[in-house]
Amino acid sequence: MAHVGKRVIASREGIDRKKLYGIDEAVKTIKERATAKFDETVEVSINLGVDPRHADQMVRGVCQLPNGSGRSVRVAVFARGPKADEAKKAGAEVVGAEDLMEQIQSGNINFDRCIATPDLMPLVGRLGKILGPRGLMPNPKVGTVTMDVTGAVSAAKGGAVEFRVEKAGIVHAGIGKASFDEQKLIENIRAFADAVARAKPSGAKGTYIQRIAISSTMGPGVKVDPSSVFAVASAA
């Protein structure tokens, strides 16, 4: 049986695991219990009424967090010529074409987001088995295959969060840091939830947004009342 530390036990005290908390109370509760020695990430998880095994129930998208994610994001860009220069000027840490492909194939993946111009996608496609499982494969649906390299790099560094539903029908993302004030976290959570709601697939049946929970890296999870998150009463 795994040992549960005193800090973990203390962080769980006072949390009703059956209660649906309003978003304000939930965020306050999470912040109060984020007591690790580092700035913990606040994460949101949303259970969806979809079966990702069916193509018409796949959920994928991107959300621009209004207050940023608090993360330092390293960006790689597949581009040549003027577009490569544009990527470097925009702040991309890694820029290249065949040389970048070889770097990735050798296992040197020192970036968090990958962007590509459309003309280099045949090259990037060879890396699908490497980048795909890591969630790094550029995709036009989330704005990472584009000629607007400057905009894509700026979005990635400014708090753009990609999401994709997992096999269990859950989407999750880090939407800020525990050091953020409560209102900024609430705004980020609502922005992310709205982006997921807008990505509702045509094949979804019944209630789409089923459950929402938030937690910090080392803290307990808190269930959130969906009606307190959305500006509209129903996201189904």
From TrEMBL:
<comment type="subunit">
    <text>Part of the 50S ribosomal subunit.</text>
</comment>
<dbReference type="InterPro" id="IPR002143">
    <property type="entry name" value="Ribosomal_uL1"/>
</dbReference>
<dbReference type="GO" id="GO:0005840">
    <property type="term" value="C:ribosome"/>
</dbReference>
<keyword id="KW-0687">Ribonucleoprotein</keyword>
<dbReference type="InterPro" id="IPR028364">
    <property type="entry name" value="Ribosomal_uL1/biogenesis"/>
</dbReference>
<keyword id="KW-0810">Translation regulation</keyword>
<keyword id="KW-0820">tRNA-binding</keyword>
<dbReference type="InterPro" id="IPR023674">
    <property type="entry name" value="Ribosomal_uL1-like"/>
</dbReference>
<dbReference type="Pfam" id="PF00687">
    <property type="entry name" value="Ribosomal_L1"/>
</dbReference>
<protein>
    <recommendedName>
        <fullName>Large ribosomal subunit protein uL1</fullName>
    </recommendedName>
</protein>
<keyword id="KW-0678">Repressor</keyword>
<keyword id="KW-0689">Ribosomal protein</keyword>
<dbReference type="InterPro" id="IPR016095">
    <property type="entry name" value="Ribosomal_uL1_3-a/b-sand"/>
</dbReference>
<dbReference type="InterPro" id="IPR023673">
    <property type="entry name" value="Ribosomal_uL1_CS"/>
</dbReference>
<comment type="similarity">
    <text>Belongs to the universal ribosomal protein uL1 family.</text>
</comment>
<keyword id="KW-0699">rRNA-binding</keyword>
<comment type="function">
    <text>Protein L1 is also a translational repressor protein, it controls the translation of the L11 operon by binding to its mRNA.</text>
</comment>
<dbReference type="InterPro" id="IPR005878">
    <property type="entry name" value="Ribosom_uL1_bac-type"/>
</dbReference>
<comment type="function">
    <text>Binds directly to 23S rRNA. The L1 stalk is quite mobile in the ribosome, and is involved in E site tRNA release.</text>
</comment>
<keyword id="KW-0694">RNA-binding</keyword>
